[in-house]
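I have been asked to look over a protein record a colleague put together. Alongside the sequence sits a line of tokens, each denoting a local backbone shape. I have pasted the whole thing underneath without changing anything:
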Amino acid sequence: MNFNLYFFYLAFSNHTIISSLMKISLIQSDLAWLDKATNLGRFSELLSPLKGNTDIVVLPEMFNTGFSVNPGQIGEEHDGQTFIWMSEEAEAGGFGICGSYIVREGRNFYNRWLMVTPEKVSYSYDKRHLFSISGEDLRFTRGEKRIVFTFRGVRISPYICYDLRFPVWMRNRNDYDLMIVSANWPESRRSVWNTLLQARAIENQCYVAGSNRIGTDGEGIKYCGDSVIINPKGEKITLAEENTECTITADLSMAELTEFRSKFPAWKDADEFSII
């Protein structure tokens, strides 16, 4: 048994759980095109009922502007307006808040997923798979590092929209319990969104939370939501109503996850691989 599989075996054969339940909430909303003030203000309203009532709030991809491949006018410093807003909301709400927005570093722009905790600790991931069909790869710099971090006893690995089509990059290397996907996934490909989220949960034996937007963006692209929380068996725990602004919430049981992985240890037969 190689080192990674051995580590995974020790982690999941031991039923000592740091946090037995995590409550996660996904906000599904329309986005005002390139209007940060309106979007952040609306999300503040939607976050208000969640204060003290959840552990993590997941927002869509580019939640402060809508999905744009013209970052020059809307990109901001990592710790700029949106970061400050996220920090204030996380502290006031007692939850971690996450989603992606456009970050500028020198001459480079990143589609950066960020999570900020109530303690003002932050974690970031830059989108690896840029959507070349829209020209995102021409204006943004792709991320090079997959990340995993632990929040309230749950190991989390975040991804952004188009990443969902690339299972090798998202493969559970025996190191996470919850996959989070923030997206602007069009209505025209909704069946792909739903299918791939379930597949990622099944093949990685993990919880999956996929947050998507609704409405029509400034390019005329329509979105219907389908935000969803899925268990490690690929079953939908809760699903947002189509084309409706709403918040969905579910409890994720780490004890149940550990038991499932122990009773059905498919990870033992996983192939070794490396990404160059």
